[in-house]
């Protein structure tokens, strides 16, 4: 068994897939999650896939004493992967204080406790949202950080700064900031996936809910952008590929291979796919015809963004492997499984 890793938000969408990959790679995992956006039965599904039941503590990362007790209970935690955060862009505009409190407070608590408990490093879930609309595409890690479009996006920028400031102040920790592009899809077993709360805001959950008949029609927000087919372009990254990026980041950190105490990596495919292309890829992959219509633009949307993932390819030795059709098929199988389980 390799080192012990604390995964905050480990029952969430990306966290749960990452716990599976960490366990597959031999790491011992302790999950902390307050279940504000996930369910405890995810732990059963992780166990079913990987054959190992991770330790699970239902706890809010804002609870400093509770977190302190977790580090004491599970002696020898070597690194943290910090997923726990509130992540709905629209809600963050309505409830900025909730977002600032949760997303900043959780990180601050962890950073405060790390040296005390000998935790060597933290992998942080950042986002391509920090780039806004980049001046050059594909976007590299050197691109300037643009003014955030939402309080949520701002918490990612501030979190990155907090980590840099803490390291610069002489804290003995290391950090790896992973800037995810657009994570989609589900585990091939259909035992893990994204479980949106209420009406989905993101494209793929809305699309699969439309395909299965929960929603009547998918609205495509705009076909008058300056892109080949007029719809927006994103870099859709398979969630299992994304999960694997965390494992190689942890390997690098714990093997002492980091060249800088804070390293940043884009985690994307390097390929831009438009909203309309994605719809057609879904139809092709599943044979299901999708009811959609073009409507006006959505406020705050970036026209086009995709990653230059070369640094992650070279330095981490990580590459996105799964094609868009396989990924969309996995999202569809997950949606079908949810129906089978009577969840949605
Ligand atoms: P998610 O909501 O599925 O997972 C987050 C988990 O954190 C949930 O299980 C939730 O219950 C838990 N949580 C929230 N606040 C907590 C707290 N204070 N204490 C303990 N647990 C708490 O979201 P996700 O899509 O898996 O995202 C994971 C991380 O990746 C987040 O930090 C998110 O901002 C970031 N991210 C996500 C995307 C995306 O499109 N999904 C893109 C870029 C970055
Ligand atoms: C993708 C494209 C929409 C829904 C958000 C956050 C970002 C990051 C990932 C965390 C856009 C279009 C969508 C629909 C549509 N999260 N769309 N109809 O906006 O790229 O990024 O999630 O860090 O911070 O902002 O993702 O899935 O919402 O949209 O046409 O019903 O799909 O306009 O072009 P987005 P998304």
How would you portray this structure in words?
- This protein has helices at residues 13-24, 42-50, 64-73, 89-94, 96-116, 151-168, 203-211, 239-254, 275-286, 310-316, 324-340, and strands at 4-8, 28-33, 55-58, 77-82, 121-127, 174-180, 182-184, 218-221, 233-234, 236-238, 262-267, 273-274, 292-295.
- Helix 7 crosses helix 11.
- The strands form four sheets. It has a seven-stranded parallel beta sheet with strand order 3-2-1-4-5-6-11, with helices on both faces.
- It contains eleven helices and 13 strands.
- Helix 1 (13-24) links the parallel strand 1 (4-8) and strand 2 (28-33).
- With 344 residues, the protein is α/β, with parallel strands linked by helices.
- Bound molecules: nicotinamide-adenine-dinucleotide and UDP-4-deoxy-4-formamido-beta-L-arabinopyranose (WQD).
- UDP-4-deoxy-4-formamido-beta-L-arabinopyranose is lined by residues 87, 89, 127, 129, 153, 182, 201-203, 206, 218-221, 232, 234, 275, 298, 301.
